[in-house]
Design goal:
By secondary structure, this protein is α+β, with helices and mostly antiparallel strands. Strand 7 and strand 8 form a beta hairpin. The longest helix has 24 residues. Helix content is about 40%, strand content about 30%. It contains eleven helices and 19 strands. A six-stranded mixed β-sheet has the order 3-2-1-9-10-19, with helices on both faces. A five-stranded mixed β-sheet has the order 13-12-11-17-18, with helices on both faces. It has a three-stranded antiparallel β-sheet with strand order 5-4-6. It starts with a strand and ends with a helix. The structure holds adenosine-5'-triphosphate and magnesium ion.
Length: about 350
Amino acid sequence: MSKVYGIDIGTSTLKISQKDVGVVYNQKNVIAVFDKKKIIATGDEAWAMDGRAPSEIEVIHPVHSGVLAELKKMTEMLDIVFEKIGEEHGKMTGQEFLVAIPSYATEVERKALVDLVAATSVKPKRIRVVDRPIADAVGVGINIRECFGTIIVDVGADTTEISVVSLGGIVVSRMLNFGGNRMDESIISAVRKDYNFLIGRKTAEQIKNTLGSANDPSDDEITMMKAFGRDIISGLPGSIRVDSSFVYFTIQEHLQIIAETVRNILEHCDPEISLDILESGMYLTGGASGIKDFDRLLAGITGLKVTKCPKGSESVAVGLELIAENQKLDFLAEKYEMMQIM
Ligand SMILES: Nc1ncnc2c1ncn2[C@@H]1O[C@H](COP(=O)(O)OP(=O)(O)OP(=O)(O)O)[C@@H](O)[C@H]1O
Ligand SMILES: [Mg+2]
């Protein structure tokens, strides 16, 4: 029997699932290139080199703001990743792929994602596409064929996709062009301003993931961590201690914009759908949904019940896997050629 793989190419992470197996890959979508030509590391291993590599090694993010920017390098990276997956779970040659496509993608961007997978050396025998919010909906556990209306908020690295989904289709979708990465940038700026201290992107991400909260922590709830970097005044390496209240004040503006946008979408929904959403509630997913109390903030602003997906980064890949496994969900995957004719 043929194998089916689901692929979700994110700005921050690359996720791959396999029918009847699960998520077989979830690592940083990063490549380390030596002398502008040779890929020497991919994924988490390449990410570990970021900020540390000598000048002849370049650490590349092939996807920028949710859009494929480095087609050739990304194809080479997929070849390496597919080879690794193949070693563990059996060869990937000549199989079928489901590719997640963001709702905001233009026809050219859609085609680029399909062409990317088609160009890999595993030579897929069939490639079909699934709208990312639909894969998300299935992945978070919504019964998509029966659900009359629900809202899904996917907070990724460079994109936040807010979609109202009903009966297997997208009713409304809005994209904000920021996610967790913007919060990391704000942490870097705030640390520089308040502490006269420079930290790198990885440290900022660690601070957000460890201390980030959508709720101002009370004095006895405040948690702290040590962050390493360079003192701007002395110019020397060192460390500072940051606390969760500082992080809350640094990232809250971004969380607030997301919450207000969700509310705005709800205010413009058809009344029938509004009623359905009131019953089904909201689903919060994407890696940055891991921020503590983000669900509580959204529930407070919208009055809806909010379900947080435990492995937010993987919900799209899980959705693709479920679509591959369940014949009744097969209609959610579209053959790419058919869409081009339309
Ligand atoms: N526990 C956590 N708490 C807060 N943020 C987290 C946590 N874990 C991961 N993140 C953040 O989630 C983001 C990555 O999420 P995800 O893997 O869904 O993004 P992506 O799919 O690559 O991006 P996009 O969909 O925007 O292209 C990063 O900004 C990362 O720092
Ligand atoms: Mg994503």
